[in-house]
Specification:
Elements (H helix, E strand, L loop, with lengths): L1 H11 L4 H8 L3 H9 L6 H11 L3 H5 L18 E2 L3 E11 L2 E10 L4 E4 L5 E8 L2 E5 L2 E5 L4 E5 L4 E5 L4 E9 L27 E4 L5
Antiparallel strand pairs: 1-2, 2-3, 3-10, 4-9, 5-8, 5-10, 6-7, 6-9, 8-11
Helix pairs in contact: 1-3
GO molecular function, one term: DNA binding
Protein name: XRE family transcriptional regulator
InterPro entries: Cro/C1-type_HTH, Cupin_2, Lambda_DNA-bd_dom_sf, RmlC-like_jellyroll, RmlC_Cupin_sf, TransReg_Diox_bact_type
Length: 209
């Protein structure tokens, strides 16, 4: 799924593998493996591709919407692993021009996950543990029931404080940040640079800025 979607997104942006490698800091050999379906991407790889290609994560992973009752078993979902975080993509939700992606996010004990930024607005709700969040130099500490939201284009990081952290990650995208997989047209001019649609940094409950 990633192979065809990555190739489609790269073509729509008019990028060669060499140019995509330069912009994403991902080796050409790795990109070639991903496009051929033999690679095994990490969180860092997928988010870097999302940032450079300016498309939602689910447009690359091809999470298709379904009607009626939807049940997703966490144990059946392929895990995206990063330096400090395990992500399980659970659901893609389309509402009007907006797209939402729901992830089960687990920050490993002592783990830290850094991001240079990517497309969309990021929302996180902590379920268990204490989570340190840094966004563009600002820091908050969250506990169970706390929420943080911010423009995902800003550099940010998650750190587990004193034990593993369970949380729900929700990524939100606008219409101009979608790949529109149903009608790929190589050579069609792509949208301009994506802009965040949400607050720069919003903290709910007991989070401290």
């Amino acid at each position: 799924m990633l192979a065809a979607n990555l190739r489609r997104a790269r073509t729509r942006r008019g990028l060669t593998i060499s140019e995509l490698s330069r912009r994403s800091k991902i080796g050409k050999a790795t990109l070639s493996q991903l496009e051929s379906g033999t690679g095994n991407p990490t969180i860092e790889t997928v988010f870097s591709l999302s940032r450079v290609l300016e498309v939602p994560i689910s447009d690359l992973l091809d999470a298709r919407p379904s009607d009626g009752l939807v049940t997703v078993r966490g144990e059946d979902v392929e895990v995206l692993r990063g330096e400090g975080v395990d992500l399980r993509p659970l659901r893609r939700i389309e509402s009007g021009d907006a797209v939402f992606e729901v992830f089960d996010q687990r920050v490993r004990d002592g783990g830290r996950q850094d991001s240079l930024g990517h497309v969309g607005t990021e929302h996180t709700i902590v379920q268990a543990g204490r989570l340190g969040v840094q966004v563009d130099g600002r820091e908050v500490e969250l506990g169970p029931g706390d929420y943080v939201g911010f423009d995902a284009a800003l550099p940010h990081s998650y750190t587990a404080l004193g034990g593993a952290v369970r949380s729900v990650l929700l990524l939100q995208y606008g219409a101009d940040q979608r790949l529109h997989l149903s009608a790929p047209e190589p050579g069609v001019p792509c949208a301009g640079p994506a802009t965040g649609t949400g607050p720069e940094l919003a903290v709910g409950n007991s989070g401290r800025v």
